[in-house]
Design a protein that fits this description.
Elements: H1 3-32, H2 36-69, H3 76-81, H4 91-95, H5 99-120, H6 125-141, E1 146-148, E2 153-155, H7 163-166, H8 170-174, H9 193-208, H10 210-221, H11 229-257, H12 268-293, H13 297-319, H14 337-358, H15 374-396, H16 398-407, H17 420-442, H18 452-477, H19 482-508, H20 514-534, E3 537-538, H21 554-559, E4 561-564, E5 569-571, E6 574-583, E7 592-593, E8 597-599, E9 605-608, E10 612-614, E11 617-620, E12 625-627, E13 632-641, E14 644-649, E15 652-656, E16 661-665, E17 667-670, E18 674-683, E19 696-700, E20 705-708, E21 712-722, E22 724-725, E23 728-729, E24 735-744, E25 749-752, E26 755-759, E27 763-767, E28 769-771, E29 776-784, E30 789-796, E31 801-810, H22 812-839
Antiparallel strand pairs: 1-2, 3-31, 4-31, 5-6, 6-7, 6-13, 8-9, 9-12, 10-11, 13-14, 13-15, 15-16, 17-18, 18-31, 19-30, 20-21, 21-24, 22-23, 24-25, 24-26, 26-27, 28-29, 29-30
Helix pairs in contact: 1-2, 1-6, 2-5, 5-6, 5-9, 6-10, 9-11, 10-11, 10-13, 11-12, 11-22, 12-13, 12-15, 13-14, 15-17, 17-19, 17-20, 18-19, 19-20, 20-22
Length: about 850
């Protein structure tokens, strides 16, 4: 039992919590005192306390990772999320799989950002760090895991709790120091490289919303109503880019790992992050408006505060357990719902009260905003983004409304939308159109008003180009749906108008072109979303006229294709053929034919029966022991065109009890114009005993050719005497022989090796050999010495099969390329704003 490291971790958590409060108090004193000497003294104390807090946070991170990496399964966190067989790169993923680890990740990023603020923001350090350290105190309280004596109140859930204290299992009463030999391991679905980088990116985006909020609150507190915008804007741009990147990473993970055929499912947890990001983008635009024309200051204050509060609300939704079964992503409640609510209410009430008190003192622009000014169009765009978020937020919060009504003794029958994708998409589509049109038009305005004639001249060429591209697009792509036509037109207009602005800025000042680049990316994303979602089509149509199963719904029988092994079918212009089940080795790239290995008592290891070759590369030698991922089975699907192999796909089926059985993940054949997205809909159940056909007896001689099922050329090549069967030594008086039978399959020869055994001179035993790919079983029934013949028994069953679904996703790579362009635009704008701030 490694007690010390857990006690050290718990001590470090308490240290981080106490020092965050001490730092908050010291920074508050440094802010409120007027005499310089007293200010400096408290500022030094505050920095020292925050430094101790940072060391505490880093120490907790190191201790928890050590517990996970060293497999100290006496700790509940390590037992719940890691295992001995978990690959090293996924140790990080299991670190933040649990609530405590993800809170710690959030604190870690805050600690780093806090150090940067202390280093760079001498004027703003004290008031902003008061807000910063208070947020850290609340976050640290979530992993305290202490009980306040007297009132029996527990604060937080500790990641350092022992397994025996977390589980009510009789084994711990009998043996208090019992340590499991292995842990539960990371959810197999999360063993993906995107899950190594997506959560840290997302939580960095979360953390980056705090500096703008802290600057805004500090500005209101210190009555610096105008000055806070300049230091806050670069952080908002950085946060918008990173949070957007984290969201997009999650979408791409869903696209290539899950099998619902898309990248955004409008799950409540997805929505809870999407809404703050929309408001963050709106706040960036209003802050830019204020910096350039001194309008929209109050709007900026409202939106910056709203971004942070919405992220706290999202945290409450995801971690309090209030979503229940409404989301597959939500955490279970660890008893933190009360703390999370206090966390949310503290900053919500504090920010709102402070804003109300200062509201009349906040300067407002008296000048009238003209329709022919950029301020008007930016404000219109920001309003649209807010409405866009509001439309998603209301239905997502239905579980919260129900809970509130229940608290007051009422009964609510409100339910989230049954078809989330259809419900949200039909509204968000039109908001997307509005954003595109407003963004495209707003780019033609500079910060002063322009007249109608000038506007017409600016817009004429982009409009004509847009219409030409639109006509070409609908003619080639055959877009006829009215809503999709409008969305395509809006997306093209946004791209073309911003390209015009980009060319103009390239001549004048390329540093100003970040916004235009980002808007081009948004336009590309809109077109990619429209085509990949609106014109996604099923290509695995069942045209045989036969049902796959009477027990399955009509839609399933229509949209899925039943493939028998080594029997080609036609699909989407390809000859498609199922080639068999494959395993994935742990330490080499490639796949292994299941028939080429032998299972061992260790489910994570197999032994090669022959040299393992994949795509003309030798991976392993015969008799090598190979480590595998036993929960994963891949199905090789070969696509041929004009007799040549165009692609080999390996969609995966994963045994995943945590997700209700098996989970299918797609494999994707990518082209720039479209993706062929293929996943397994129904695999064979290997646990069921196959139904074998009637035994057929055949007499053959060594070297004689015969046919099985009238199509597989077969020859008995050799009969050899053996002194052991499957590793079991035979007695001296026992006699056993093994037949070597070569069977020519559709693509390759197979060898079947049945055994014939005479035990104790009278008892006869037979051990048949099965060739899975061909669906045949061969038994050596008898030896006929008088005719030099051997009696073989042949059984046949239904060949191995798999049911697949394949979809074409047109222009989905325009979406991914658009996200890349969007991030470049964010980066350009962020670098410019940080340099502006440094130069002042």
């Amino acid at each position: 039992m490694h007690y010390f490291i857990g006690n050290l971790g718990h001590l470090l958590v308490i240290t981080a919590f106490v020092t965050s409060l001490l730092s908050a108090f010291a920074y508050w004193k440094a802010t409120t005192l007027k005499e310089i000497e007293g200010k400096n003294s408290w500022l030094i104390n505050a920095r020292f306390a925050f430094g101790a807090h940072v060391l505490g946070v880093f120490g907790v991170v190191a201790v928890l990772f050590t517990i996970i990496y060293q497999h100290y399964f006496e700790y509940h966190y390590a037992y719940s999320h890691s295992s001995l067989h978990l690959p090293g790169q996924y140790m990080l993923s299991c670190y933040w799989e649990g609530q405590e680890g993800s809170f710690l990740l959030w604190m870690f990023w805050h600690a780093i950002i806090g150090l940067i603020l202390i280093k760079t923001q001498k004027t703003w350090e004290a008031p902003t760090m008061v807000v910063f350290t208070l947020v850290q105190a609340f976050l640290t309280s979530m992993i305290l895991g202490v009980v306040i004596p007297g009132i029996d109140l527990k604060l937080g859930s500790s990641p350092f709790i022992l397994l025996r204290d977390a589980m009510d299992d009789p084994i711990f009463k009998l043996q208090p120091d019992f340590i499991p030999k292995d842990g539960n391991g990371l959810n197999a679905l999360l063993q993906n490289y995107w899950m190594v980088i997506h959560p840290p990116t997302l939580f960095l985006g979360y953390a980056l919303t705090l500096p703008p909020f802290a600057f805004c609150i500090a500005g209101l507190w210190q009555k610096k109503y105008v000055e806070w915008v300049k230091p806050a804007l670069p952080w908002s741009l950085l946060g918008g880019g990173i949070l957007g990147l984290g969201i997009l990473m999650g979408g791409y993970w869903a696209y290539e790992t899950l099998n619902f055929g898309g990248y955004w499912n409008w799950d409540p947890v997805e929505n809870a992050v999407y809404v703050p990001w929309l408001i963050l983008i709106a706040s960036i635009h209003t802050m830019i408006t204020y910096k350039n024309s001194e309008t929209a200051l109050k709007s900026s204050i409202i939106l910056v505060i709203a971004v942070f509060l919405l992220l706290l609300y999202a945290t409450f939704l995801v971690r309090s357990g209030i979503l229940g079964d409404a989301s597959v992503h939500a955490f279970t409640d660890l008893g933190l719902s009360g703390q999370l609510l206090i966390y949310l209410l503290f900053f919500t009430l504090g920010a709102i009260v402070l804003a109300i008190i200062r509201w009349k003192e906040i300067p407002s622009s008296e000048k009238e905003v003209s329709t022919y000014s950029r301020e008007f169009w930016i404000f219109l765009g920001a309003t649209t983004l807010c409405l866009m978020g509001f439309q998603v937020l209301l239905p997502t919060s239905i579980p919260v409304y129900n809970k509130i009504i229940e608290l007051f003794g009422g009964v609510s029958n409100l339910a989230p939308p049954a078809n989330q994708i259809e419900f949200y998409s039909k509204f968000q589509l039109w908001f997307g159109v509005a954003v595109a049109l407003i963004s495209g038009t707003g780019q033609f305005f500079w910060w002063k008003k322009i007249d109608k004639e000038k506007l017409k001249q600016e817009m004429l060429t982009p409009l004509l180009i847009t219409l030409l591209l639109f006509a070409f697009t609908i003619a080639i792509a055959k877009v006829y749906n009215p809503a999709y036509l409008i969305l395509t037109l809006a997306g093209l207009y946004l791209i073309v108008s911003n390209f015009k602005v980009l060319f103009t800025l390239a001549k004048l000042n390329p540093k100003l072109s970040g916004g235009a680049v980002a808007h081009i990316g948004i336009g590309m994303m809109l077109i990619g979303v429209m085509f990949s979602a609106g014109y996604s089509k099923v290509v695995s149509l069942n045209n045989t006229g036969m049902l796959i199963s009477k027990e399955l719904p009509t839609e399933f029988n229509r949209d899925n294709l039943l493939l028998f092994i080594n029997e080609p079918r036609s699909m989407a212009g390809y000859d498609i053929e199922y080639r068999g089940e494959r395993l994935e080795p742990r330490h080499r790239s490639g796949f292994i034919n299941k028939n080429d290995v032998e299972l061992t008592l260790d489910p994570f290891k197999v032994v090669a029966l022959k040299d393992i070759i994949f795509q003309n590369e030798k991976l392993y030698n015969a008799k090598d022991t190979i480590e595998i991922f036993p929960e994963n089975t891949f199905y090789e699907i070969e696509l041929r065109r004009d007799g040549k192999v165009a692609a080999s796909l390996f969609p995966r089926v994963q045994i995943n009890p945590a997700m209700g059985g098996f989970i299918a993940s797609p494999d994707i054949k990518r082209k720039f114009s479209r993706d062929l997205y293929t996943h397994v809909s129904l695999p064979m159940n290997r646990e069921e005993e196959p139904e074998w056909g009637k035994l057929e007896e055949v007499k053959v001689k060594i070297g004689e050719e015969f046919f099985i099922n009238s199509k597989y050329s077969t020859m008995l090549e050799e009969i050899r005497r053996v002194d052991e069967i499957e590793g079991v030594k035979l007695a001296a008086e026992d006699v056993a022989v093994q037949a070597m039978i070569k069977v020519q399959g559709e693509h390759e020869p197979y060898t079947a090796s049945p055994f014939f055994l005479i035990k104790d001179k009278s008892q006869v035993g037979r051990l048949p050999a099965e060739i899975n790919d061909l669906g045949i079983k061969i038994t050596l029934l008898n030896i006929l010495p008088e005719t030099n013949e051997f009696l073989l028994g042949i059984n046949a069953r239904q060949k191995d099969w798999v049911v697949i679904k394949a979809l074409e996703k047109p222009l989905i790579n325009v979406l991914w390329l658009g996200t890349f362009v969007l991030m470049i635009g964010f980066g350009m704008a962020m670098v410019r704003r940080f340099r502006e701030f440094e130069n002042d």
